[in-house]
Each structure stands twice: as C-alpha cells, then as structure tokens.
Amino acid sequence: MSQENSLFNIGVVERETGIGKDTLRVWERRYGFPAPVRDQNEERLYPGEQVDRLRLIKRLLDIGMRPVKVVGLSLPELNALLNEAPKNDPGYSPELFEFVELIKAHQGGALRIALNLALFRQGLPEFLSKTISPLNQLVGEAWLRGEIRVFEEHLYSEQVTSVLRAAIASIRNPAGTPRVLLTTLPGEEHSLGLLMAEATLSLSGAQCTMLGVQTPIGEIVLAAQAHQADIVALSFTLSMPPLQIKSGLQQLRQALPRQVALWAGGSGVARQRKPEDGVQYLGALSDLTEALDLLRQG
Amino acid sequence: MSQENSLFNIGVVERETGIGKDTLRVWERRYGFPAPVRDQNEERLYPGEQVDRLRLIKRLLDIGMRPVKVVGLSLPELNALLNEAPKNDPGYSPELFEFVELIKAHQGGALRIALNLALFRQGLPEFLSKTISPLNQLVGEAWLRGEIRVFEEHLYSEQVTSVLRAAIASIRNPAGTPRVLLTTLPGEEHSLGLLMAEATLSLSGAQCTMLGVQTPIGEIVLAAQAHQADIVALSFTLSMPPLQIKSGLQQLRQALPRQVALWAGGSGVARQRKPEDGVQYLGALSDLTEALDLLRQG
DNA sequence: TCATGATTATGTCCTAGACAAATTTGACTT
DNA sequence: AAGTCAAATTTGTCTAGGACATAATCATGA
After folding, report:
1. Number of domains forming the structure of chain B
2. Which helix (H) or strand (E) holds A181?
3. pLDDT tens digits for B193-207?
4. DSSP secondary-structure letter at B51?
5. Label partner for B6 (CA 20 to 30 A): which of A20, B185, B273, B276?
6. Residue A273 to residues A262, A277, A280, B90, B257: CA-CA distances in angstroms?
7. Domain residues for B47?
8. Is the pLDDT of residue A82 over 90?
9. CB A193 within 8 A of CB A235
10. A-chain residues within 8 Å CB-CB of B162?
C-alpha cells in the first residue's frame, strides 16, 4: 500500500477516515483494533497500514455491516468476507467497465469526453439513471475490492461534476416552477447527488437554487424563506451516519414552514428504517420527477 | 436571528461551527462561554443564539484575534470590537458593492450574469485579482458585520464556482506543461481557491488535474506519481487551523519525491510564520504565474 | 530597536465510566 | 412458517477533570 512507515495521531486519523476520536478509542478498548503505538507522551500514533484498514472498515459499516463483525479483522480476512458477501450484481452493462478502465488508467480527459458522449447519446435522464448511478456504485465496489484508490475516486467525481455542471448551465430555468432549494446538512460533504438532482429537476422545468454542501439547519430555513422555495431538497450519501440524518431531518422539518416540502434523497436515506413525518424520501432519481408531477397536480 | 428556541447538542455544534468538542468544553471551563443548558442526562444543549455567537467567534479567531479577548464577549461587545478594529480598507471599487447588493437581494441568476460580464470585460487574470479576490474578502467582512448570512455566502460561492468552472472548461489544456495536481488536505473543504488556481494555471498553459477537496496525504503522493505531476498545488482558507496546515505540509513534503514541487496558496498560508523547507508559499494569484515562469526557465 | 528567555494561553490528547437508541435475539402466538 | 413483542446486546456519543507541547505574549537586557 502507501505510507507504510508513516504514523498519524488521532486527530489526523479522524479527518482522514471520517471516524470520530471517541469511536476510535472505544473500538480499541472493545475490539482490540486499531492498535496504535504510543509516543513518549502516551499519545496514540496510528501506522499508515491501520489507517488504510480503518478506511475499508468505514466503508463496510456504511454498507450495513456491524462493527463486531468487521472491526478487528485483518486485511485478508476482510477481503475474504468481501468475496463471500452476497453480490447483488445488477448485471452492469459492458460500457460501464470501459469507464472504470479509464479511471484506472488515470485518463481524466478521456473519461470526461466519454461521459459527455454518453450524455448526448442517451439524453440526460437516461444518462443519470443508466450510466452515472450504476457507475457510482460500480466505482464504490471496485474501491472495496482494492481495485481503485481514493484518489482515483476523486478523479472520477471531478469529471462527473464537470460534465453535470456544464449540462446544468445550459438547461437552467430561472423562471421555472416550483422553486427548489438544494443543499446538504452539515456533515454531508458530497455534492454529486445534489448535482444529479439539480440536473433532473431543471430538465423538468423547476427553478433550482443550489446552496452547495453543509448549510447549517437554521440557514436552510432562512434561505427557503428568502427564495420562497416550495421544496427543500437534501442529499445524503452512505458516509453520513443514519442517526445524524434522522435527527437532522427532524430538526429541519420542525423549523421549516408547513407549506414547504422537504425531500431527502441519496443512498443514505435508503437505509432509514422509519420514515419521518413530513419528509418525502426519494430512493431513485426517477422518484424525483414523479414527486414533482404529483406536487404540480396537487 | 434564527432558531431562537432550538437547542443543539455538542456534536451538532461541532459540525455547524467547526469548533471541536474538546475546545467547546474547555472554553466553557476557562472563559465561562459557551454556557449550554443541560438535559435530564447532564448533557450539554446549546441555544441557537450561542451557536450563532460561536460562529462569529470562530471567524474572529480565524482573522487573528485571541480567544481570551473574544470568547465570552456578548454580541454587542463583539460588534463594538469589530468597529474599533483597524480597517485595512483597500478602497474597494464601487462595482464590487453592486455584487454584494445582488447577494443581499438573493439574485443568484443576476449575480452569475454580472460576474460573467465582468469576466469577459476584464479578462480572466484581472477578473480573478480585481473582482473575485477582493469580493471574497468583502463578502467575508460583510458577514462579520452581520450584513449577510451564511446561506448568502453559500449562494455567492456557488455562483462563482459556476462561472469559474465554465471558464476552465473552455481553456483546459490536456497537453500543457508543466503538469499540476490540485487538491486540498483533509480538513480543508473549500474549493474556490483551487478553481481560481486552476483557471490561472490553465490560462498559462499548464496541464491541471483537479482532485477536488480533502485528499488524504498518502493518496496525494500516489496521484502525483500516477499523473507524473511536476507540481502539487494545495489551497488553504482561514478556516484551516495553522497547526494543521504546518504539519500537513511537513508530512506531504516528506512523502513526496524531491523533484515534485509543492506549492501552497490561499489566505490560510499567509498566516504561517516560519516557512517550511521545500514548500513554495504563494500569497497571491499573481505569484502563481511568476512561479510557473520561474519553474519553466529553471 | 532588536534578540532572548520566561511566562501565559491554547488546543488537543488522555482515562474510564455512563447511557440512550438501535439492533439482534429469543420466546411466544397466529 | 411467519409475525409480534419484550429482553438482551451492541454501538456511538457524551461526561469529568487532568495533562502537556507548542504558540503567542511579555519582560528583560544588549
């Protein structure tokens, strides 16, 4: 792997893995992993190899595994577990693997061109549902298997962002209805889902106001008021802890006026067990246009 | 203000303000602020008003004030302090205030159009140095004075991002030299600085690979290798703690091959006291083109 | 006026315990 | 076999209060 010799303190590990300090310490106590060395001051120093393992563990937890089953397993054991795991292979189209090959070959420019070709061949809705969505999943799975690295995922995200932003710029509708405010809650730093939603909604004639990621709850309320938004749309990835999603949606729903609809989408909300009252959960992008039609009729 | 009645637990406050849990607790012990109420379980609950104050305090610390001077002051006292503070007013051009007015009026579309006009009137380098850079500062100061809100800043960032990304898309040079890898370290989540750098470098004929924000240090090293980068360029805002910047640059410099240059820019690095060995600090965007020319000659 | 050493300020880390909420387990019923 | 409910377990996050390295400020002397 990388940085075999490097040592990281607990703050750096928290930032690099997204696992909180408290959690890192309590895992060590309960499961015996991670097992950092100590400096002269009895402070934890995590070897780079363990940080890599923690990143993998984080992703496994994100897809639903339980800590007691995965924290503490060695890398070979983790990989064995991955191969055993039920593969819900939705039969990826061969074209998708070509994109993955471009990522692995670090051909950022070629990747963007190929994505653009697919966009204009398929049209935006199909491009999002048949190419980008499954490709996101495929890339995530390839990362789990160790086939692609974090920086390669970053490269991929960047190219998709570039393509989607260009598309949105050309279909934006400043006078559309309803008015939709797009953002994420603090803690959710991924914007790809938002861009996909903005593209879909804009194409359906809605007027989108993008606020970017991590808007404080109180500010979302003010923004909805200022823009007279009919809908506040939030996006959640798997990296967002389910509890934070739940309480965030509760707080926001309570603070938002009744007549403003609250929509939540992304892989993070698919996990939510009990739906919140007054929050519309959107599992797929197609649900977005449906919900939009419904709202326009009602 | 907003959310007068809402109560937030310490985890939410950490995420919403960017101030760590440990820091929040130790401030309470030392300065008597924040002064959260407790729930039935003796856990801290911060009133929304105090969260707003904490956000302001965070920004004041970011611009160089000391905790003992600002943590614990009431809102009126903080505002008084702001008015006393030496105004290093660089004589903002009147045009800039028109942009601010558009932000205050929540005219996102008009703002983007106005920015685009300025871009094509001034040309990219002048647009960045004479419009975007001072406007960023102006917006930040207006926030400090309570004239604009967080969500309005988000709106502004989004429009600038949109304009810059469109510009970059049209001047990108896939065969340029040198090769530059652009990203931020974990903890730095702002990408505007990166986009400004990418625009500047692309215009100067460099080949830019954007990795987005928050790439782990080990992954930056691998990415530099994969792309045969000549330069790794990082961006830091004021919200990034100086200590994290310092140690991050040290670690990265150590892990990166000698022949790969490491450039660091943004308002966050202007604060750094002692420069790191082997790291080029770029205070302004103009330094970027200079450094590029120098590197091409040498 | 500038450098140098002493002092204070500051963020981050430590241990060890606790608890609410979520999930799993297991018994029981339909 | 499948559903329901309560008990048991798991899990993340919070608490207190102490400690220390390093940065910033202050005081002293050249």
Report:
1. 3
2. strand A179-183
3. 999 999 999 999 999
4. H
5. A20
6. 18, 13, 13, 55, 49
7. 7-84
8. no
9. yes
10. 165, 169
Confidence of residue A297 (pLDDT cuts 50, 70, 90): confident
- Model pLDDT, residue B4: 63
How far is the alpha carbon of B169 from chain A, nearest alpha carbon, in Å? 8
- Nearest-CA distance from A46 to chain B in Å? 14
One domain, residues B158 and B200: no
Distance CA B231, CA B179 (A): 6
B interface test, pick of A154, A162, A249 with most B CB neighbours within 10 Å: A154
If phi > 0 it is left, if psi is from -120 to 50 it is alpha, else beta; for residue A284 that is: beta
**pTM, two decimal places:** 0.95
- Report CB contact under 8 Å: B150, A219: yes
Question: Does B164 contact A at CB distance below 8 Å?
Answer: no
pLDDT confidence of residue A1: 45
- The answer to whether residue A47 is domain-embedded is yes
Whether residue B186 lies within 8 A of chain A, CB to CB, comes out as yes
Q: Which helix H or strand E contains A195, and what residues bound it?
A: helix A192-203
- Kindly report the average pLDDT of chain A as a whole number: 94
Asked if strand D contacts B25 at the CB level, meaning under 7 A, the answer is yes
Condensed to tens digits (0 to 9), the pLDDT of residues A47-76 reads: 999 999 999 999 999 999 999 999 988 888
Provide, in whole angstroms, the distance separating residue B66's CA from nucleotide C8's C1'.
13
CB of B35 less than 8 A from some CB of A: no
The rounded distance, in Å, linking the Cα atoms of B235 and A115 is 28
Instruction: Locate B83 and state its tokens.
Output: 């008015």
Nucleotides of D under 7 A from a protein CB: 10-25
- Report the interhelical angle of A133-144 vs A150-171 (nearest 10°): 170
Q: Rounded to whole angstroms, how far apart are CA atoms A187 and A192?
A: 15
Distance between CA B107 and CA B156 in Å, rounded? Answer: 10
